[in-house]
């Protein structure tokens, strides 16, 4: 593992990875700023077309010469019951009337342009590609390796991490239950709702099970927390919510403000907005519809898309998907590059306080 680890972490001086947050937050400005500051910036290709992804890659290259990554969603199997989706649509009819919009078409598509995006990333390589919602085929990983791209895959359990290792990936992203946004489970099983593992425990479990570098993700907002996951065996930490409030983030202004608003004191995992478990700030929509949302991704995501857009346009955070990790109250309104610097300073101070620990960047 040592050679693979050093090759990967040599890409970014600081052990800080900016999480790819789909839906707008993780755009070219944010990715470039993080990479320029010594972290690993990421673009989120989820919910974008392949051409949209390519255009953003070009923008990042125009802003920085540092390495960066692109995140891709795996296609989802057809398992949702149409009756359950239809029933949920009936429940949301009042929301559509309130926001003066129509519900979206549930059957809008479920592969997120995966094959086209992978082909584009092989044809015009980027330094790192990560995968969410499953494990890419070994042939995909091999194709990326042939063009010099590192492949990272999210796992939420030891079993998923073992599948990542079998696929030949270069590192596993250990996503703890504290993480904001969608849980990257490989199979969406409703019976597992609420059974997530905390990031520190998950990192330790995965480190003992697989011979791969581990990137820890989930609720990490301070350099001291980065020191903790490194001490637990991670090679780097992935932070999403911490970068959500930065000026370079493409998140809606209402979303940014809600992170530290006393009206939103905590988060919950919910299927209300997308049909898949995702952690967000508790608001009216989540409270009223979360208990009844079916396990149907991406059908529910497509169904609620117009509602979420209309709520944002109306300036109503109570109808928006306010994705956030458990540490959201610690969000800091700093430029992304400065935030990387502050996190690195906090990490160095925390590491120096540990007997026998060396300070510095990625290990």
From TrEMBL:
Entry cofactors: FMN
A Pfam entry, by short name: NMO
Annotated catalysed reactions: 3 propionate 3-nitronate + 3 O2 + H2O = 3 3-oxopropanoate + 2 nitrate + nitrite + H2O2 + 3 H(+)
The UniProt record lists the keyword Transmembrane helix: no
GO MF assignments: monooxygenase activity
Keywords on record: Detoxification, Flavoprotein, FMN, Monooxygenase, Oxidoreductase
Family that this chain belongs to: Belongs to the nitronate monooxygenase family. NMO class I subfamily.
UniProt protein name: Propionate 3-nitronate monooxygenase
Source organism of the structure: Streptomyces similanensis
């Amino acid at each position: 593992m040592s050679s693979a680890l050093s090759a990967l972490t040599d890409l970014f001086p600081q052990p800080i990875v900016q999480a790819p947050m789909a839906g707008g937050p993780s755009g070219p400005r944010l990715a470039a700023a993080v990479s320029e500051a010594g972290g690993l910036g990421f673009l989120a290709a989820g919910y974008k077309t392949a051409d949209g992804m390519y255009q953003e890659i070009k923008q990042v290259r125009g802003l920085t010469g540092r390495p960066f990554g692109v995140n891709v969603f795996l296609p989802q199997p057809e398992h949702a019951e149409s009756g359950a989706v239809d029933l949920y649509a009936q429940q949301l009819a009042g929301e559509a009337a309130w926001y003066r919009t129509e519900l979206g078409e549930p059957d809008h598509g479920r592969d997120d342009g995966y094959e086209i995006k992978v082909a584009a990333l092989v044809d015009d390589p980027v330094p790192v590609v990560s995968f969410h919602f499953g494990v890419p085929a070994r042939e995909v990983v091999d194709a990326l390796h042939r063009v010099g791209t590192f492949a990272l895959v999210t796992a939420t359990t030891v079993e998923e991490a073992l599948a990542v290792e079998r696929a030949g990936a270069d590192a596993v992203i250990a996503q703890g239950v504290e993480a904001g946004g969608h849980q990257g489970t490989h199979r969406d099983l409703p019976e597992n709702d609420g059974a997530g593992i905390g990031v520190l425990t998950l990192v330790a479990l995965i480190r003992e099970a697989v011979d791969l570098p581990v990137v820890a993700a989930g609720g990490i907002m301070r350099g001291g927390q980065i020191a903790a996951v490194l001490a637990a065996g991670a090679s780097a930490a992935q932070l999403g919510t911490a970068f959500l409030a930065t000026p370079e983030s493409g998140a809606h202004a209402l979303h940014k403000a809600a992170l530290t608003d006393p009206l939103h004191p905590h988060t919950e995992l919910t299927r209300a907005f997308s049909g898949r478990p995702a952690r967000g700030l508790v608001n009216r929509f989540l409270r009223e519809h979360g208990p009844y949302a079916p396990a149907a991704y991406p059908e529910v995501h497509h169904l609620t898309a117009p509602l979420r857009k209309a709520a944002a346009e109306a300036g109503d955070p109570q109808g928006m998907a306010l994705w956030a990790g458990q540490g959201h109250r610690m969000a800091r309104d700093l430029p992304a590059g400065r935030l990387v610097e502050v996190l690195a300073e906090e990490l160095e101070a925390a590491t120096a306080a540990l007997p026998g620990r060396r300070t510095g960047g990625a290990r």
